[in-house]
Amino acid sequence: MINPILKTQYDKAVQQTKMHIIKDVNKYLENKESLPTFAQYMADRKVYIEQIWLNTWLNIATSHIKYAEKKQYLTNKGLDISDLSKKQINRLFRSEIRDVGAFSYEEWLTKKLGEDKENWKNKYRKQRVAYVEKVEEQKDMETKRKYTVKFSYYIEQLIEKHYEDLFLYIRYLTGSNIALEIDRNGIILSSMELTFEEYLSNEMNMPYNQFYFLEDRTETYENLILQHLIDFFPTWVKDRLPTRIKEEYTEVYNHSLTNSSLLEVSMPLLQEVTVEFLEDLLPEYVIDLEKLLDIPFDMEIHKEIMEKDRQRKAQKEAEDREEQRRRKEEEARMIEDIFGREYYPPTNIDVKYVLHTGETNTGKTFQAINRMMEASSGLYLAPLRLLALEIYEKLNQQGIPCSLKTGEEEKLVLNAQHQSSTVEMFHEKNYYEVIVIDEAQMIADKERGFSWYRAITKANANEVHIIASLHAKNMILQLLGDTNVEVHEYRRETPLQVENDLFQLSHTRKGDALVCFSRRNVLETASELQRRGWQVSVIYGSMPPEARKKQMERFIKGETKVIVSTDAIGMGLNLPIRRIVFLENDKFDGIRRRMLTSQEVKQIAGRAGRKGIYDIGRVAFTSDSKKMKYLLEKKDTDLFGFTIAPTSAVLERFQKYSNNLGLFFYLWGHFKSPEGTKKASLAEEMLLYEMIMDTMVEARMSLHDLFSFLKLPFATSESSLRVQWKTNMEAIIENRDLPEPKIKQDSLEELELAYKSIGLHLLFLYRLERRTEAYYWEKVRLELSDQINEQLKKGIKGKRRIKRCKVCGKELSAKIKFSVCNECFYKK
Length: 828
Description:
Layout: H1 4-30, H2 38-64, H3 67-76, H4 86-96, H5 105-114, H6 117-161, H7 163-185, H8 196-201, H9 217-240, H10 243-253, H11 259-281, H12 286-290, H13 299-340, E1 352-358, H14 364-374, E2 378-382, H15 385-397, E3 402-405, E4 410-411, E5 418-422, E6 432-437, H16 449-458, E7 461-468, H17 473-480, E8 484-490, E9 496-498, E10 512-515, H18 519-531, E11 536-539, H19 545-557, E12 562-565, E13 579-582, E14 586-588, E15 593-595, H20 598-605, E16 617-621, H21 625-633, E17 642-644, H22 648-654, H23 661-670, E18 677-679, H24 683-692, H25 696-700, H26 703-710, H27 719-733, H28 748-767, H29 771-794, E19 803-804, E20 811-812, H30 822-827
Parallel strand pairs: 1-7, 1-8, 2-5, 2-6, 3-5, 6-7, 9-16, 10-12, 10-13, 11-12, 13-16, 17-18
Antiparallel strand pairs: 3-4, 14-15, 19-20
Helix pairs in contact: 1-2, 1-6, 2-5, 3-4, 6-10, 7-13, 9-11, 13-22, 19-29, 20-21, 27-28, 28-29
């Protein structure tokens, strides 16, 4: 009696086993040349049949009986399964049901086949006949397969032997199709040298051809060629096949060779040769193909025409290659003449170069500025307007008249022989006794680096003092070549100490500078600190220099206790900072987010521990302190590859050849910069140029003036500023007043954008020498800067929700997606 739990699946196993046994009987009988007895079958296959049953039963039972029913079955048998896993229970169940009695297959099979000998004999005959027929059919199929291979080979040989004849006819038919298509649709060819390939891909969509194809024209002509082959190929082949091949075909297939059967065999070959024919046609001129319509097909005549067409095309291609080679040589000569002799080390041996290198906060700039103050005339070149403003004020406070020029502002002091400027304002024709070039490691910057290159190599002075980080030393010495260079290296007197504990916002103390790498994060952090009761100064790159200066002054005077800043704090800003805290270890560099470099960590961390105020500078991190400490302490890899860009002399040499600025950008792109240098991308200049290319602005403005306007230093990433730039350019060539900047003041973001807009306006005014207007707009911009500063003093709007670890309560970075900190996660 079968257990009810097993009954349904047991019955299924019985039915499947019966089917398997009948299949086995049929297979057994068909392979016997003489009739075996039923008893002989049972003797030979008993073990196999038993295995069929067991496998079928176990597979069906274990797969289809529910897990709960398996547990019930085992429990009913008195087995303790309470501590067993699901896998163990399944294994035990399979073992227990092996002994379930097999159905009486021998009794069933004997009754079905064994008791009636005549039935057994008829089954044998039926299986044997079917088997013999199948074997004969397979032999016949193999014979036909072998002959088909042989037949295909002969056809392939025919095609290969007569390939050119076939191609000539297809060429004639295709050319006729093209001629009819051009005439029918009124297509106008753009060139006498238009190739068939260009015709298929481009010509149909030309604006003067109001005829548009929806389908792929290449595929259309491929199908057309194949259809031509299908039409004439069977007759063509039968006329050339040997008689014996056709007789063999009739013998193998029991019927004569027909067009349809020949195409069936040949179709794969025809498809291949269609592709080859099309590939051979694509390079041909359309005018050579379409003229074939008017020339009745004659093999020899068309062969002669094709040879002449090919010779003429080959000659034209050779002439084109020669012209291209000549143009490349001319282009190379132009590039060498325009750029090749411009970028070499300075040759003025009368200039004394003094290189000040060292870590941040070591007094490099102090020494160089003191020497400039002693000179009868001097020029300070800064990377930032704020630093230029700082030196301008310092010199005037100490009784040394000094003017300020940054492109966006001019403060001319009477009888001043000293000037403080941003590095982009350097003019090589102006002489000074001492020139100081600050943050010269920026020479490696891919966008601004050339301004430092130009200042260093073209400086017109008795002494040039270059201030740079240690890892720029060798590169600058390489740039200076054999000139007279005096090197001073500076070391920190105030040591830096990395704190072991990871920083949390609740650890903030007086004198801290918290550093993150976006304006948004600066404002959010400052907002949270203000919510906690801290008075905060903020510094970020897009902040107006005047506002930035006032934020710094508040910190210096003690009005604020903490600074939150971007990495702008790392460039030349001397502040009484007790501790630098890195709130982030990575930054977006304009292309991707990446880990801070060793030099970036040093540059920022070096601002901690102002000499004379603190005996030690402290540095803290919010994560990965070991890795960040390693970056802080490791020796930097030397910089390699200073940036070069077009100079005035380069533009003057280019004008001997052309006034087309588009050509200039093309030649610059193909100029290979000298070893140890890298070219400025000029991406911002090209972005602006595209806005006025082929307009009246380009037509009416000199190349030199146009290029100088393209190089105006403003935030080209702001679309509204790009539009303002273009509008101003149009006003200049139309001799109109420059449109006034648009000023919105409803938010901090709008104030900052308005500040930038006025800055761009000032760049134009000073470039056009409209100083009276410029002074007015400087006052307006200063008022905006005051408004920005007041907003920052009042507090940043918008509260930042602080994420905390749900286990220990530690503050989590906003970028972390999880609710548990790393330490608590790994403790689990």
